[in-house]
Write a structure and sequence with these properties.
- The chain has 395 residues and is an alpha/beta fold.
- The protein has two domains: 2-173 and 371-388, Glycogen Phosphorylase B (Rossmann fold, 3-Layer(aba) Sandwich), CATH 3.40.50.2000; 181-367, Glycogen Phosphorylase B (Rossmann fold, 3-Layer(aba) Sandwich).
- It has helices at residues 13-27, 43-46, 63-81, 113-121, 125-144, 153-163, 176-179, 188-195, 217-230, 256-264, 282-286, 303-310, 321-327, 339-350, 353-367, 372-394; strands spanning 2-7, 33-38, 52-54, 85-88, 101-104, 147-150, 168-169, 203-207, 236-240, 271-273, 291-294, 315-318, 331-334.
- The strands form two sheets. It has a seven-stranded parallel beta sheet. Strands 10-9-8-11-12-13 form a six-stranded parallel beta sheet, with helices on both faces.
- β11, α12 and β12 form a beta-alpha-beta unit.
- The longest helix has 23 residues, at 372-394.
- The chain is globular and about 75 Å long.
Length: 395
């Protein structure tokens, strides 16, 4: 089988995590050949994978410009490659694919009423309109594709309600060996921030995310003074893998509200902005912390939850159907915009060592249920089914 993987949309976050795990898995399948379209900046990372050929495509800046380029030029590239099946990995499908097409749809913002409400509150009207346009294209894409796949059953159900189309759920995976493999030291600046003002009895929280609105940083920040008051003199630290400023934020999210909130709440001594941590070294940051917390109000899978569970951290998560599906009983939950509930749940974990240990053990067990090899098996089975159906129609 020859797959054409369109990963041009992946430059950070979950899309990049997907390519970094799935392309190596596909490259070791002896009966699979892959042509991959990825951002040229990533060519060096993937160029040595066996059985993987990188398509020479220079995508324009911006989602909508890239979408139109793909619609007009990608079909010819796919035909030239000789691929049997197209895997569109970036939420948008080709309207007229020359081969059977699997669409991977994983952007929960297009269906999130919370996100659109948040944009209006922030007076981000241009962002609101752009997301509406992208959402319309994403909805149409589900109709254009032969099969659509979501990374969780909860998000698959949301897509089915939104599009009234069939959507399959194939969990994203996790490669424990690969995640913990890199033993190089953390960058000096990150190590310094982790070690600064270290206290044996401190409660060290971790939130892994670049800054954006739907990860709901503000609710987490509002919980910090409440937590500090309830921790009976124990020091509190919140480590973020981002900087709370807008400069250099390619996604266009403005962090001013969050940074102002840190000062207004007087939690400058609590919030530690590590900045971006190289992904191969991220496991070291997890293991420096006590509790993983996420207040996100929109998700389709949430890789850091699996990483946190695999690292032995108890999880405190906003009460989303996706979070409950991924973590099950390895997490405790709170209403997504309730800072008091978030603080209460963190205190439950921080104040009860046996309960924290139980959550940690459940998380370690749950993390083993996710496998990139299994994900690729199911994806290839779906591609094989498409090819079989195509052959049957041809007879």
């Amino acid at each position: 089988m020859h797959l054409f993987v369109n990963g041009l949309a992946a430059s950070a976050g979950g899309g990049l995590t997907y390519l970094r795990n799935v392309l190596p898995q596909l490259s070791v399948r002896g009966d699979v050949q892959v042509t991959a379209a990825v951002n040229p900046q990533l060519h060096l990372e993937f160029c040595d994978l066996p059985q993987v050929t990188l398509a020479e495509i220079e995508p324009p800046a911006g989602t909508l410009m890239r979408f139109w380029q793909e619609q007009s030029s990608l079909p010819a590239v796919i035909l030239k490659s000789g691929a049997d099946v197209l895997v569109s990995a970036g939420n948008f499908a080709l309207r007229k694919s020359p081969v059977p097409q699997i669409l991977l749809s994983r952007n929960s913002l297009y269906t999130s009423t919370d996100f659109f409400r948040d944009l209006r509150r922030r007076r981000e009207y241009g962002f609101w309109l752009e997301t509406r346009i992208k959402g319309d294209l994403a909805r149409r894409s589900v109709a254009w594709a032969d099969r659509t796949v979501a990374p969780s059953e909860a998000f698959a159900q949301e897509l089915r309600r939104w599009t009234r189309r069939s959507v399959a759920a194939i969990h994203h995976g996790f490669d424990r060996e690969a995640f913990f493999r890199d033993a190089r030291p953390l960058p000096d600046e990150v190590r310094y921030k982790l070690d600064l003002d270290r206290d044996k009895g401190a409660v060290r929280l971790l939130y892994v995310s670049h800054y954006n609105y739907y990860r709901n940083f503000e609710t987490l920040l509002r919980a910090l003074p409440l937590l500090r008051d309830r921790l009976s003199g124990r020091k509190l630290k919140l480590f973020l893998t981002c900087q709370l400023h807008s400069e250099g934020n390619a996604s266009g999210y403005r962090a001013r509200e969050a940074s102002d909130l840190v000062r207004q709440l007087r939690v400058e001594d609590v919030v530690v902005e590590l900045g971006a941590v190289p992904y191969p070294l991220l496991h070291q940051v997890y293991r420096e912390c006590d509790i993983y917390v996420t207040p996100a109000y929109a998700e389709s899978f949430a890789h850091p939850l699996v990483e946190g569970m695999a690292s032995g951290l108890p999880i405190v998560a906003s009460d989303l159907a996706v979070h409950r599906e991924i973590c099950q009983d390895a997490a405790i939950y709170f209403q997504r915009f309730s800072a008091p509930e978030l603080a209460e749940q963190v205190c439950r974990v921080a104040g009860r060592s046996e309960f924290s240990k139980q959550l940690s053990e459940r998380g370690l067990a749950r993390s083993r249920d996710f496998s990139w090899s299994k994900h690729v098996d199911e994806l290839l089975a779906l591609a094989d089914d498409l090819l079989s159906s195509k052959k049957a129609r041809a007879i």
